[in-house]
Amino acid sequence: MRAALIRRYGGQVQIEDLSRPLPGPGDLLVKVRAASVNPVDFKIRDGKVKALVKDRFPLVLGNDLSGAVVESHGSRFKAGDEIYARLDKDRIGAFEEFALVREGAAAPKPASLSHVEAASIPLVGLTAWQAMLDIGRVQKGQRVLIHAGSGGVGTFAIQLAKHLGAWVATTVGARNVDLVKRLGADEAIDYRAAKFDEVLRDIDFVLDTQGGETLWRSFSVMKRGGTVVSIGGMPDLKFARAWGVSPLFWLPLAFLTRRETRLAREKGVRYEYLFMKASGEQLEEIGKLLDAGIIKPVIDRTFPLEETPAALAYSESGRATGKVVVEIR
What we know:
The longest helix has 14 residues, at about 120-135. The strands form three sheets. Strands 3, 5, 6, 7, 8, 15 and 16 form a seven-stranded mixed beta sheet that branches. The protein has helices at about 40-45, 115-120, 120-135, 150-165, 175-185, 195-200, 210-220, 235-240, 250-255, 260-265, 280-290, 310-315; strands at about 1-5, 15, 25-35, 60, 65-70, 80-85, 100, 105-110, 145, 165-170, 185-190, 205-210, 220-230, 270-275, 300-305, 325. The chain is about 30% helix and about 25% strand. It has two domains: about 1-120 and about 295-325, Quinone Oxidoreductase, Chain A, domain 1; about 125-275, 3-Layer(aba) Sandwich (Rossmann fold). It has twelve helices and 16 strands. Helix 5 links the parallel strand 10 (about 165-170) and strand 11. The chain is an alpha/beta fold and about 325 residues long.
């Protein structure tokens, strides 16, 4: 089978032939129809999350997919069922013709979506869901700020926040202001024309996708008792302990995230770093919102499997609006 892989961190992404993976107990062997590109793919390729995930080479990239079950070694799905899934962090590999999926990570593909549309959802949908519902517990009437509203996570998160009844602000480039307003944003801040921390106040929840200066400035707009969740910053000490990261990394991570820790304490807010987890149960709930038309996928471009390196480069350039998807015909 064909697969897009690397043979070392920082290496070129290559299209090579591999043996079809062998499923074990609880596994689904899935014929992949589409897989989406996410920023974590660049981080994995470059070795930036190797302290969190133990990879084996050659490493097939790709973290979420949509396809059809070929073999089922579980009890929930049978051969022929169409599913979508975010793969477990320690067994990624979606940019390939056949992939192994833990049954508990899979959910029925939303019937109203194509495989390309469905593949664009799992990672960004679970990220927004876990940030807003599991951690932030966003409620009706609260004020929410979502950074990079035209990105993959942002386009989903705006729609989810509006479904939850929140007032939503987002940062975005001028060319995508109309898009995020159509998705439900109440206030779209052109980050080149205005500084969000000079416009906003009394925010209950922030979803940060950028890290660095953007994350640090976000604390200044918060209401005391609010929550900041980052997927763009550095993992903090609390996260490292919870995820079983080697104690060798605890002190460096505590040092690198000292500013976030201090700002959270000074502002009286909760700060969490999120590396989302695969969950078929949550994907089923998300699927209901998709089939009801409450949340709609936003897709920029699709690429064939052979052009996976170009798909990664295009997504990494920052020019994409919504998701980039690799289609496997």
